[in-house]
Specification:
It contains 12 helices and 8 strands. Helices cover about 40% and strands about 15% of the residues. A hairpin with a 2-residue loop joins strand 5 and strand 6. By secondary structure, the protein is α+β, with helices and mostly antiparallel strands. The N and C termini lie far apart (about 40 Å). Strands 1-7-6-5-2-3-4-8 form an 8-stranded mixed beta sheet, with helices on both faces.
């Protein structure tokens, strides 16, 4: 698997492959293999850890059982104070990389089609190659949505959901893509792309763009990633197909 934690640490330290290779005294091809998941020799791990000023275990966590807090913490690739701090290209990169699963859970998720004008076409392409796409939006008439709408800006969330459906009108009944409504009290918004995910806590009276975002990578059974993945599956089991909702229109 790709070592996104190492890649992210290199980007934060402004070190490209060639520079890191020179400082560790290895061939650039070796660094590229590390980025593609190969485990470096211990002396190289120590040197890279020193250069990036990060614990070795956080750069190369070992798979196993979730037996310690450090094992679980290693699943966290990055944390952002606000969802809006994540550049759109980071989202797009994960959409493009996904091959098996794209799962989205939120209230309206309108920022996604607005930020990515080619998202619908990409989702069609992914579905055509066997990628399962599941999108769960808030039921516009649910009690939970009315409560959340009252916390933020009353009257704004149902129209945003309808606008999202308008953006997604060409994939509402597309093979391999499911778009459904949930009626749950939403504790988090969630986006999964195979073995990576963005998790966004829903905070009281705070717009989603201002809430924190965690970037997670699946590394261990029963870890943080697995817990959030199970949360999505539990919510998905309660969802309702759009066509079962009277008055729901795609435009």
């Amino acid at each position: 698997m790709e070592n996104e934690r190492l890649r992210s640490a290199m980007e934060s330290a402004h070190l490209d492959v060639e520079t890191l290779a020179e400082r560790v005294n290895v061939d650039p091809k070796t660094v590229r293999r590390w980025l593609h998941g190969c485990l470096p020799h211990p002396r190289h791990r120590w040197k890279v850890s020193e250069l990036l000023q990060l614990p070795e275990k956080s750069l190369w966590p070992l798979k196993g059982n979730a037996s310690s807090s450090s094992d679980c913490t290693a699943e966290m690739l990055a944390a952002y104070a606000h969802r809006s701090d994540v550049p759109p290209e980071a989202w797009w990169r994960l959409f493009v990389k996904a091959e098996k699963h794209i799962d989205l859970l939120g209230i309206a998720l309108l920022f996604l089609p607005e930020q990515h004008p080619y998202l619908v076409e990409l989702l069609k392409e992914k579905a055509s190659t066997g990628c399962q796409v599941r999108i769960a939006l808030a039921h516009p008439d649910s009690v939970a949505l009315r409560m959340r709408d009252g916390e933020e800006y009353p009257g704004t969330l149902p129209p945003r959901i309808q606008t999202t459906l308008y953006h997604f009108r060409d994939i509402l009944h597309h093979d391999g893509i499911q778009i459904r409504f949930h009626s749950t009290v939403l504790y988090i918004s969630y986006a999964r792309f195979d073995d990576e995910m963005f998790v966004m806590p829903q905070l009281f009276r705070l717009h989603g763009s201002k809430a924190p975002l965690l970037h997670l990578r699946s590394l261990i059974p029963g870890g943080i990633f697995a817990n959030f993945a199970a949360h999505f599956e539990a919510v998905w089991e309660t969802t309702t197909p759009l066509e079962a909702i009277e008055g729901c229109h795609s435009a």
